[in-house]
Amino acid sequence: MTTDPLAPLLALADVAPAVEQARDRVDQAHRHRALRRQGGQVAAEVSLRSAVASAALEGRVHDREEVRAGTVTDPVLQGALRVAGALPGLSDLWSKAPRQVLARLHVLAARDVVTEEELGRPVADPVVAARLDSLAALVAGGTKVPPLVLAAVVHGELLNLRPFPGPSGVVARAAARLVLISTGFDPRGLVAVDVGHREREPEYVGAAGAFATGTPDGLRSWLRHYMSAVEVGADQITLIGDEILAAS
After folding, report:
1. Could you tell me the residue ranges of all domains in the chain?
2. What would the pLDDT profile of 1-57 be if each residue is shown by its tens digit?
3. Which residues, including other chains, have CB under 8 Å from residue 152's CB and lie 6 or more apart?
4. Cα-based angle 141, 147, 150 (whole degrees, multiple of 5)
5. Is this prediction's pTM over 0.90?
6. What is d(CA 189, CA 185) in angstroms, rounded to the nearest whole number?
7. Virtual CA dihedral for 138, 106, 104, 9, nearest 10 degrees?
8. The organism sits in which domain of life (predicted)?
9. Class of domain 7-247 as given by CATH
């Protein structure tokens, strides 16, 4: 029997309860009554807020209402919007061909930011290539840990590797959301995890650095942060749903 390489993460102090709490928060948010008839509106707003947050985490901070009005031309923000809009259509392919999907995400994220020759091409580093292969194997069924844990690992590893030039963080955050969508944990992509990362940005940066150390404490720090960000993302469903119901 092959040992699950990610299973030990659940034995780290406080991680399993944090995963359970985040899952419960998402389950509760998914029952919001606005999703019965206005789920499309909620999903569209989540997509917008996620893109704005992801661009901000790349240092491109923009007012959400200006983005909504279409007046922001910043290429990183535009790339984040393209990526957010593409996630539902990429979810079926993600577990079958993760390397292909990552390349596609980079093309969407980095257009007008890097050269045409760099789009969709990982950096030429054998260590990065090997670790991308290992990550792809996990996504393609190489682990049975809960989707939240796999998403956190995918996100943390891609942030650490920065396998693509330009806004690689946008790709990392999108890949993590794809894990949640493709596994059926968040099939409509309603959990705005990136908003949680943005709201807790100092913790996000520190925990990502801790993850990169590979130590048990570093991994625990990142996993705890990720679950907190998921809870914030779940709360966004409630906030957005309440706003839509109040306006209808």
Report:
1. 7-247
2. 468 999 999 999 999 999 999 999 999 999 999 999 999 999 999 999 999 999 999
3. 176, 222, 223, 226, 227
4. 70
5. yes
6. 9
7. 10
8. Bacteria
9. mainly alpha
